[in-house]
Amino acid sequence: MVLFAGPNRIIVLNGPSGSGKSTLFKSVTEKPCFRGHFGFSVSHTTRPPRKDERDGIDYHYVTREEFLALQAEGGFLETAETFTNLYGTSYEAINDVLQHKHCILDIDYKGSLQLKQTLSKEMGIHALFVFISPPSRAILEQRLRDRKTESEEQLELRLATAGEELTFFETNPGFYDVHIVNDNLETASTELEHAIRKFLCQKFTPPSPY
Hints:
9 strands, Rossmann fold, single chain, globular
């Protein structure tokens, strides 16, 4: 499978739960200069939908068998397993966005590792990889606890996963193009806006076929 060839770009967003990455990106893409020019790729998942989540909007909800079948067909650019649930970004989901807008992917670092390999080395596509981090691990834990949406066991699992995300970032300093500490939303929003503007203005030379 291939990705839609056009002028629109791919932006990959990483960061642990509690970093505020979704709120941050929304604050940037809703600015007048950006509004209507960005769309989120809708991932597939085997986890059941949460309250108020909608199929095809928040995720494509599928059974494990359906997910594995699509994976066997080569339908995913990246897949990952989190809390025993499978997640994946399909070619179709990205293409649906790229035909009309710049595509934003909100995935974990494991998916980003696969995606960077596929996009840059196999397709010659340049994507912007952004990592959003909290001011500290202690603040991250407090943010997650303040949500009061999970049991202690679920919270511990989420904290462990968040720790993995942060450790990967800390031990792979050259992996991400942009790092933003989300301590103040207004400041972080300005930093992200500047990074996106710079990326969208860059001219990339396609790789030689020889």
